[in-house]
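User:
Note these tokens:
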Amino acid sequence: MSETATSGTSAAKRAGSSVWRLLGSTGPLVVLLVMGILLYIAAPAFRSPTSIMLLALEAAAIGVVAAGQTFVILTGGIDLSVEAMVSFSGVVAAILIAGTNRAGGQIANGLPSYVAIPIAVTAGLMVGLLQGLLITQLRMNPLIVTLGFRSMLLGVSLVWTRGAGINIQKDPLLSFLTGVITIGQGASVIKVPTPFLICLVIYGISWFVLRHTKLGRYTYAMGGNETATRLSGINVDRYKMIIYGISGFLAAIGGIMVMGRLQSGAYQNGTNMTLTSVAAVVIGGTSLSGGVGGIWGTLIGVFIMRLVEAGLVYLSVPSNAKEIVIGAIIVLAVAIDVARQGQIPWLRRRKSQSLVAIQRER
């Protein structure tokens, strides 16, 4: 009788975990599709191909930033400096291209974008590596380190620009990076924003790294149990530093995308990108405690966030309500993550009671 009860309990646990895994892998996609269908029905303006193109364009920069955030959160950390990095990298590139840090679009002895952009992106990489170095070697809390760098990077951007945007003129490279690629001919032509294609390439590379390289395996291992990973002989500090470097690198690329699109480097360019990127990662199924999740779920989470923002516009919801809705989505996403991990006491009690009832029935 006890063996039957034990097997019934194990089966129930396996069924419960299977349901959560299924919801974690397909739930965000289902939500995205349902939201898209509802918005398609409720807002006729959303039905045009231009609206879809704009949605993809809006998702590109934050998608790249969220990809880097995914690496960090998978290790159990968090990077609160990404929005400042977006602003900082854009300001660095704009100053180098314009040849001046004075507002007004003056063109002095500026560098071509193919020189300025790598310098700005390398700066983002170095800052990310520095954050990882402080976190690993001084055993500082990632929350405090990245929050401190957020303040410093925003301050540097503000001082360098004197609070005004540094306007630039597009050269052929910037025009290509911020333009569209036409696919097809005649009536079947499709215009895809180049930034979104770049975003997809980055996600493809990130997926390969996470699934088919040592760095990816160690990323999941550190998030699952860092102590056990360290005891198994893996250089946790080195790989964690690399991961924060990746986050800084991708945030800087996102900053170049925003700067190129706006033709201006300003300290406000990355506003709200930290919260949006974290929300997209969690909505996509990655656990805030680390070790569980995936990169493609993050991209779905990005589209969910952008679809919500677009829906508010198409449905003529006051712009002031945007922050309320986004804040509610973030809280809901974290609540779902906590429930997914079984950390809510009353849910655990109900689950235990259900298991006991199953045992008695058997």
Q: What stands out?
A: The chain has a mean pLDDT of 85. The chain is about 75% helix and 5% strand. The longest helix spans residues 2-42. Strands lie at 166-167, 180-183, 190-193, 264-265.
